[in-house]
Design brief:
CATH superfamily of the largest domain: 2-enoyl-CoA Hydratase, Chain A, domain 1
Structural class: alpha/beta
Number of helices: 22
Strand content: 15-25%
CATH class of the largest domain: Alpha Beta
Length: 588
Amino acid sequence: MKDFFKYLLASFAGVLMAGGVLLLAVLFFFIAALAGSSGNSSELKPHSILHLSLNGSLSERYTENPLDVLKGQGDTGFGLAETLEAIRRAKDNADVDGLYIEAGGLSGATPAMLEEIRQAVEDFRESGKFVVSYGDMYTQGCYYVCSAADRVVLNPQGSICWSGMASEPVFYKDLLEKIGVRMQVFRVGDYKSAVEPFTSTRMSDANREQINSYLHSIWNELMADVSRSRHIPTDSLMRYADEYMMFAPATSVVARGLADTLCYADGMKEYLQSRLPEKTRKLNLISPADFLAAAKKDKKAAPDRIAVYYAYGDITDAENEWGDPCIASRTVCNDLRQLREDKDVKAVVLRINSGGGSAYASEQIWREVELTRHEKSVVVSMGGMAASGGYYIACAADTIVAEPMTLTGSIGIFGLFPDASNLLQEKLGLHFDVVKTNELADFGTQARPLNNTECQLLQNYIDRGYALFVQRVADGRRLPADSIRQLAQGRVWTGKQAVENGLADLTGNLQDAIRLAAERSGLKKYDVETYPEAKEWYDNLLGNTRKSYMESRLGTLGEYLPLQQLLRGMDRQSCIQARIPYLPNLTN
C-alpha cells in the first residue's frame, strides 16, 4: 500500500510537470506567433505599395513587443532606422510601385528625425514612383513629412495643423520648495540652462536668446522645405501659421495649396488602385517591416563592412533596468573596442541621438572613439540631438555630419545636489547627529546643505571638467581652445549653425555619412551592418512590461512625466552631468 501511494504521487507529480512544460511551450509558441503576425502581414508581390503609417512613437530603432498586440496596442511605435531603410530599398525594388503615407498621431519625433524621413520620401520620388499621403488630421510634424508627396489628400472634415513652433520649458523650483527640497547647483556657461527648471521660475536672458535662435533656425528650415515641395512662398506660409490653420475649413486648406484634394478614408483604396497599372488593380499594401523581411532574403554580403553603431538615449554609467534606451558607457566602450579590432570592419559610422548625460561616461566613450579613429575612419551622423555629452562623444570623429535641424553643441557641464534637510527635519520630523574623523567625512549627507568648503570643491571640479570638455572639442575640431570657448558656454546650436561655426563639417543624413565613410576608406563594394545587434522582443519583455506598467500608473503626470523619469534614474547617474537644457519641449 505504501508503494502504491508512492507511485501514485510520483505519477501525479510527473503529470503536473509535463502539464507545466506543455503550458509553457504553448505560451511560447503563441507569443512567437503573435510576434510574427503582428502588424501588416502582406507579402511582397508585383505592384505592391509600401505603406508608411506615421502613428505611434518614433525612436531610432524599435523592438516590437507582442504583448502590445494582446493589449490592443499594435501601433505603439516604429523605428527610424528601419523606416529609412525600407523607403531606400523600395525605391529600387521592381515590385514596389509607390509609397502611401498615412498621417496619424506621432510622438517622440524631433524635427531632425522628421527631416530624415522627408528626405527619404523625396529621394523615393526621384525614382518616378508615386507618393501619396492621406490624413484625417495632419499634425504639423506629420504634414512636414507628407508635404514631400506628389499628392496630399485630406479628409473633407479634416484639418492640417500649421501654426509655427514654440518651446515651453516647465519649471519645478516652487514645487520643490513646497515639499522642502532645494537644488544646490554648480555649472559652467551662461547658456547651460539644464539647471534652470530646478532653480528658477522663468528663462534666463541667455537661455531665451539661444532658444529663440535655434527655434527660428529650425522653423525657417522647415518652411523652406515645405515651400519648395508645395510651391508656396515662405511669406505665405508664415501668414498661414499666424492664422492657425488647424481650424480652417478643409476647402480653404486646399485653396491655399497645403493639400491637393479632399477624400474620405474609404475612397483612398479606389484612388490608390487608380495609380496602379490597369491590368493589376488589386491593392497590396505592405508595411516597412514586412517589406524588409522579404527584401533582405536576396541580400548578398560583401567582404568589407561599414559598421553603423547606434548610440541613442541618455548617456549613463550603467545599463537602464527599466528598458529605456540608453548609452551605457561600459557596453558602448566594449562594443567600439570589438569593432576596432574586427579587421573586416573598415569604417565606423557613429549614429548619435542623445541630449547627453553623465560627464564621466561621456569621457570614457570619447576615449574609445579617439582610439578607434586612429585605426579606421570614424564618421559621426547626428540625428535628432547630439548635444552636450552627445557632442562630447562625437568630437573625436574624423568627420561630423549633422542634419540642419539637429540640436547640438551645448558644450558645458553641471552638477545638481538636492538639499532635502528641510523636508527631512522640518516636515517629516527626522533629526540627525554625526561623529566623524575628518572635517568633510559626511560630505553629501542629506542631513544638511553643503558648506562653503564643499561648494568650492565642487565648483573647482566642475571647472576642471569644463576645461577638459573644451580641450577635447578643440583637439577634435583642430581649433584653438579660445575659439571653442566662444562657441561653448553651454549654448545649443542647430546642425546648420554648427556647420557655419565649425562644430560640424557638413549637413547631411545617415546615408551621406555612410557614403563619406566608404570614400575615406577607399571602398567600392561594401556591406553595411548595424550595431549593437537589435534585441529580440523576448529580451526586452520584462523591462518593457515594467516600463509600460509604471507609465500607465504615472500617465496622469502628463508633461511632468519626463521629470519623474529623470529623477528615478538619478541614483544610477553620475552627479556631474553634460546634458542639453533638460526638456527643449518643442511643439510642432
